């Protein structure tokens, strides 16, 4: 049986984003540099306040320096095949908010900045560094790296001064590379995500989609976060600036997390005030920057925001069952990514998980068939309801949350509804002529230019209506069709 064209299009719209998301997850593995594929085993890590000890075990994912200065001892195992003059050169990779002086098997091999016991004497090193290890310094079997560390310029909201993940540790021994910055392959997900976000931005501003402004806020916030993530692959900045970059990433993602439920709530027809969004977002950014660690705060907020968005989708009375499943599956993809490795979530998983969500945002708004509008209008004011023939209405002027209706008889009556509500109830011959005026096109006799960019409409019964420059073209075209 042949699938109808619309169904094939819909199936592609729903299924294709998940293939793209899977591709974004696979690309970092395909572009993994050789230095991460040939990493030597790290046997033990210990820390001491003095070079002579005493030494105590340490964990790299929660490493803090007492008084921001200490000594770190790391023992690596090097296979016989990786030693000798014919072996590929090795490098010690250092990543994090610290300065370091490094000894390898009691031989000094280099610096990452200049560590010191006090802030004034320390020279903050780059966020990432690679120290080449001469072949005659490396022995088969166990090798000891001794690092003098200081971190006077770091921000205390971070869990550890050593950065990285299980797949890309911030302290590792691997094949040497002259490129000290993190490999672009590691950031391929945010890079490809950045391209998709730019395309999504153009779609949002040029297509009739649901809740365009909130959609644009979410996409731009993701763009800012992706740009800040990619910055580390472009420039090895001094580690003291790391919190500025991290704060930018976390703040942008906090805006995204707070906007998400408001977008789906308003898309589903719920009344969710923008003032509430501004208040929640401001509180979230303050919590991100002052409570910290920033990424932990954003991660926790997303655990609330995404399920709340799913609940709002199912609470909506406007969404069809099929559309609810479409929206829920996109949000479920984001929810699933939150349960994976937290460090890789912000560097990679997030930008793959939002691809189905971008498809949801870019899906054009369904065009509703307009129902016949009544030729009479029920006008309610001060507890009284009056029936008015629409043909007898010349203009309707906005007055706050009310509307002043001017009739052909010269009478003016007040209605309890806003202009926006009134426009949905009136026949198609009523059009907006000004931010605060609706006009009956059947009553228009002339469109007159007053000079200096000012216009007005001359109506029957010697009445006039102001016409703004932004509505001149629309009114002129509407009059030409009559």
Please tell me about this protein's structure.
With 482 residues, this protein is α+β, with helices and mostly antiparallel strands. It folds into 3 domains: 11-31 and 184-362, Rhopdopsin 7-helix transmembrane proteins; 36-175, Jelly Rolls; 376-480, LytTr DNA-binding domain (OB fold (Dihydrolipoamide Acetyltransferase, E2P)), CATH 2.40.50.1020. It is 40% helix and 24% strand. The protein has helices spanning 5-30, 34-37, 188-206, 212-234, 242-267, 274-290, 294-315, 321-338, 342-353, 355-362, 419-425, 469-480, and strands at residues 41-48, 56-57, 69-78, 90-95, 99-104, 107-112, 128-133, 141-150, 171-175, 376-381, 384-389, 393-399, 402-407, 412-415, 430-434, 437-440, 444-451, 454-459, 463-467. The strands form 5 sheets. Strands 2-1-3-8-5-6 form a 6-stranded antiparallel sheet, with no helix packed on it. The protein has a 5-stranded antiparallel sheet with strand order 14-13-12-16-15. A 3-stranded antiparallel sheet has the order 7-4-9. A hairpin with a 7-residue loop joins strand 1 (41-48) and strand 2 (56-57). Helix 3 (188-206) packs antiparallel against helix 4, helix 3 runs parallel beside helix 10 (355-362) and helix 7 (294-315) runs antiparallel to helix 8. It is elongated and about 100 Å long.
């Amino acid at each position: 049986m042949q699938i109808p064209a619309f169904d094939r299009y819909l199936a592609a719209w729903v299924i294709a984003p998940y293939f793209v998301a899977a591709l974004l997850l696979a690309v970092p593995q395909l572009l993994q540099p050789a230095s991460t594929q040939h990493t030597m085993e790290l046997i033990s890590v210990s820390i001491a306040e003095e070079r002579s000890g005493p030494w105590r075990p340490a964990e790299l994912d929660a490493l803090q320096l007492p008084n921001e200065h200490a000594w770190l001892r790391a023992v690596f195992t090097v296979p016989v095949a990786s030693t000798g003059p014919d072996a590929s050169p090795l490098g010690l990779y250092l990543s994090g908010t610290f300065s370091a002086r490094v000894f390898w098997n009691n031989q000094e091999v280099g610096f990452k900045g200049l560590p010191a016991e006090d802030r004034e004497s320390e020279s903050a090193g780059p966020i990432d560094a690679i120290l080449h290890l001469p072949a005659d310094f490396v022995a088969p079997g166990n090798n000891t790296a001794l690092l003098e560390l200081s971190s006077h310029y770091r921000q205390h909201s971070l869990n550890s001064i050593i950065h990285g993940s299980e797949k890309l540790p911030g302290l590792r021994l691997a094949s040497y590379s002259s490129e000290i910055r993190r490999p672009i392959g590691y950031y391929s997900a945010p890079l490809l995500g950045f391209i998709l976000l730019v395309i999504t931005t153009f779609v949002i501003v040029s297509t009739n989609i649901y809740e365009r402004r909130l959609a644009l806020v979410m996409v731009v916030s993701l763009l800012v976060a992706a740009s800040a993530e990619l910055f580390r692959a472009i420039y090895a900045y001094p580690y003291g600036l790391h919190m500025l970059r991290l704060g930018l990433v976390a703040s942008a993602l906090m805006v995204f997390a707070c906007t998400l439920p408001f977008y789906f709530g308003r898309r589903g027809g719920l009344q969710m005030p923008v003032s509430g969004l501004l208040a929640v977002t401001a509180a979230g950014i303050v919590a991100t920057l002052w409570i910290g660690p920033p990424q932990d705060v954003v991660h926790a907020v997303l655990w609330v925001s995404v399920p709340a968005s799913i609940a709002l989708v199912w609470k909506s009375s406007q969404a069809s069952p099929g559309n609810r499943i479409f929206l829920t599956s996109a949000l479920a993809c984001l929810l699933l990514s939150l349960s994976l490795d937290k460090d890789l979530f912000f560097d990679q998983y997030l930008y793959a998980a939002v691809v189905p969500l971008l498809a949801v945002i870019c899906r054009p708004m369904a065009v509703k068939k307009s129902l016949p509008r009544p030729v009479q209008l029920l006008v309610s004011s001060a507890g009284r309801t009056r029936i008015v023939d629409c043909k007898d209405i010349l203009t309707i002027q906005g007055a706050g949350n009310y509307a002043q209706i001017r009739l052909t008889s010269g009478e003016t009556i007040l209605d309890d509804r806003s202009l926006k509500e009134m426009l949905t109830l009136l026949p198609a011959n009523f059009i907006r002529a000004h931010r605060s005026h609706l006009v009956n096109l059947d009553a228009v006799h002339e469109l007159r230019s007053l000079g200096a960019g000012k216009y007005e409409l001359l109506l029957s019964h010697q009445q006039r209506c102001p016409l703004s420059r932004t509505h001149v073209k629309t009114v002129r075209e509407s009059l030409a069709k009559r």
